[in-house]
């Protein structure tokens, strides 16, 4: 009950695009990036300034997210959207229209020595997607137990990682997909080089 879907998969064309994309991101990491103090993010839409490799990667990410949802629901995106709309008693004018996954926002995150990102989530988004583009080693991310109040009382026996942070160690070329409401954090990056990830906020759109 109340399980949390998280997908982890490898971009099959990573070797084709990683070099160019890394250079493109680094070229925008100076004056065109937003420095938050704890990390920096590129300004503008990655899908627009990243050129053909960014479009190719984004197309795969959206397709992968769609397939993931279809595997979870056992329905096509269009059928799953219609079913949820019916359950909510809503009418989105979706009759006869196809549903697909699209990126509403996309950016690159750059971490340098000492950078980190405290726990947060991505509001108003169906799926958060993060792709690891370049790093000297493992790219760690932690997911927080999303069940409210689970850490209010320790019964003494944990059933399913109660109140724990679940850490995944990914490598460049891997993609993670998780619900926009799932809180996550990036532990401190400790290397003199740079760790680059690409993030997308994904939504369902009517074609
Ligand atoms: Fe995030």
Briefly say what this structure is.
The protein has 207 residues and is of the alpha+beta class.
Task: Give an overview in words.
This protein is of the alpha+beta class and 207 residues long. 25% of the residues lie in helices and 33% in strands. It has helices at residues 14-27, 46-49, 51-73, 77-87; strands spanning 7-10, 33-35, 40-42, 99-111, 117-120, 127-134, 139-144, 165-170, 174-179, 184-186, 195-206. Strand 2 (33-35) and strand 3 form a beta hairpin. The longest helix is centred in the first third of the chain and has 23 residues, at 51-73. It starts with 6 loop residues before the first strand and ends with a strand. The model has no long low-confidence stretch (mean pLDDT 93). Fe (ii) ion (FE2) is lined by residues 120, 122, 128, 184.
Strand and helix layout:
Elements: E1 7-10, H1 14-27, E2 33-35, E3 40-42, H2 46-49, H3 51-73, H4 77-87, E4 99-111, E5 117-120, E6 127-134, E7 139-144, E8 165-170, E9 174-179, E10 184-186, E11 195-206
Antiparallel strand pairs: 1-9, 2-3, 3-4, 4-11, 5-10, 6-9, 6-11, 7-8, 7-10
Uncertain residue ranges = none
The molecules bound to the chains, other than polymers, are:
fe (ii) ion
| Percent of residues in beta strands | 25-35%
Helical residue percent band: 25-40%
Number of helices: 4
Describe the strand arrangement of the main beta sheet, using strand numbers: 1-9-6-11-4-3-2
Largest sheet: number of strands, sense, barrel closure = 7 strands, antiparallel
- Total strands: 11
End-to-end distance = 32 Å
Oligomer: single chain
Structural Rg: 18 Å
Summing up helix and strand content along with how strands pair, one would put the structural category as alpha+beta
Q: Tell me, what's the shape?
A: globular
Elements, N to C (H/E): EHEEHHHEEEEEEEE
Give the mean pLDDT.
93
